[in-house]
């Protein structure tokens, strides 16, 4: 009986840990008071828009047209790009736009973090706006983003990323759902104080806060967290919209998540001394949205083992039925291109990729360079 209770407790704890970032944590955030911004009248700051590219020739025509539209609306907007040794003519496409984009050509594969540091050192704007080579910004995005800097306590502003193509595959559908949950979490974190980290699709910081960091870290997390470490607010603007096409192939998404998780954990270790000095609320947010999620795959595995052991102790037949049901669901999900079983398999794959990436980083390995997904 005691063993059954222990196994049941382990199972419940694992279920709670998996649900924490998506259910319990949001409930706690909603109960916290709002921390309002306090804007001061004055002119908008100047801005530089930065992005890195590697073999993005397919995305460049639309990206460059988007940049031309933004420059027409904001003539003073400085735009800089770093090409990380592309072999498909990406750099030539950018250079062919004349003075629209200031292009820095890398000597070879050196990685996004290295490229962004080169661009930040060249930029002249008061605010640095970071985005990706395959991300498109809405026409009013720059204006609305810069308006949030009217509050002198705001040191960084995130935009809202809307994914395109959620209906193209189960992988894309799961990715879209996950990101909608992520966006809502960031909205609540922003309302209550600070968002704990940005992704590279669309975010900005005051140029004076740009930190120094090694090329091996995740630059968007490192740069955005520098705002919090400096005692400024990192907030999210719901009305600053960026759009990106989802990855549709499981293999592309798996490799992407392994790479991101490996670099995120490596970055976590790099930032650990500063993370420990954050305010208690920010430490709670960081642990809830990042650390607990990074180990979600281990919680699922531990919970599955505990559930299996408990079922075996209760009834071997119950264990057999449960095992066959799981095998059937996974078998159907792997073969299906849509539907709930396919979505469940994609969720499990995402957790497995994250655990693999974290484990990779824990052994001292990380990923510096990247390759664009072919299935976007």
From TrEMBL:
InterPro entries, sorted: Glyco_trans_2-like, Nucleotide-diphossugar_trans
Entry keyword set: Glycosyltransferase, Membrane, Transferase, Transmembrane, Transmembrane helix
Keyword Signal annotated: no
UniProt keyword Glycosyltransferase, yes or no: yes
Transmembrane domains' residue ranges: 6-28, 291-311, 317-334, 341-359
Pfam families in UniProt: Glycos_transf_2 (PF00535)
Domain Glycosyltransferase 2-like: 48-210
Family: Belongs to the glycosyltransferase 2 family.
Name this protein carries in UniProt: Glycosyltransferase family 2 protein
Organism this protein belongs to: Sphingobium cyanobacteriorum
Higher taxonomy: Bacteria, Pseudomonadati, Pseudomonadota, Alphaproteobacteria, Sphingomonadales
């Amino acid at each position: 009986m005691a063993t059954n209770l222990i196994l049941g407790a382990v199972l419940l704890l694992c279920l709670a840990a998996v649900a924490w970032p998506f259910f319990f944590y949001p409930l706690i955030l909603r109960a916290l008071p709002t921390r309002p911004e306090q804007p001061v009248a004055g002119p908008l700051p100047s801005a530089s828009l930065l992005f890195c590219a590697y073999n993005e020739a397919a995305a460049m025509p639309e990206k460059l047209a988007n940049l031309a539209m933004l420059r027409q609306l904001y003539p003073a907007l400085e735009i800089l790009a770093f090409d990380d040794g592309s072999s498909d003519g990406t750099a030539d496409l950018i250079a062919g736009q004349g003075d629209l984009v200031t292009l820095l050509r890398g000597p070879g594969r050196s990685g996004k973090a290295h490229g962004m540091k080169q661009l930040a050192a060249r930029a002249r704007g008061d605010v640095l706006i970071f985005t990706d080579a395959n991300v498109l910004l809405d026409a009013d995005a720059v204006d609305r983003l810069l308006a949030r800097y009217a509050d002198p306590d705001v040191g960084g502003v995130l935009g809202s990323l809307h994914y395109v193509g959620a209906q193209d595959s189960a992988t894309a559908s799961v990715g879209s759902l996950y990101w909608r949950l992520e966006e809502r979490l960031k909205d609540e974190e922003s309302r209550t104080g600070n968002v704990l980290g940005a992704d590279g699709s669309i975010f900005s910081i005051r140029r004076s806060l740009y930190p120094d960091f090694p090329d091996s870290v995740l630059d968007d997390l490192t740069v955005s967290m520098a705002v919090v470490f400096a005692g400024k607010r990192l907030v999210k603007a719901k009305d600053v919209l960026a759009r990106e096409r989802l990855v549709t192939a499981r293999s592309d998404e798996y490799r992407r998540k392994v790479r991101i998780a490996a670099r995120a954990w490596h970055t976590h270790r790099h930032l650990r001394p500063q993370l420990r000095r954050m305010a208690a609320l920010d430490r709670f947010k960081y642990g809830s949205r990042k650390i607990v999620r990074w180990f979600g795959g281990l919680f699922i595995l531990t919970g599955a083992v505990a559930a299996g052991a408990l079922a075996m102790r209760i009834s071997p037949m119950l264990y057999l039925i449960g095992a066959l049901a799981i095998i059937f669901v996974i078998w159907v999900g792997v073969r299906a291109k849509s539907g709930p079983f396919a979505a469940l398999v994609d969720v499990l794959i995402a957790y497995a990729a994250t655990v693999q990436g974290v484990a990779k980083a824990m052994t001292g390995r990380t990923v510096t360079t990247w390759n664009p997904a072919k299935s976007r």
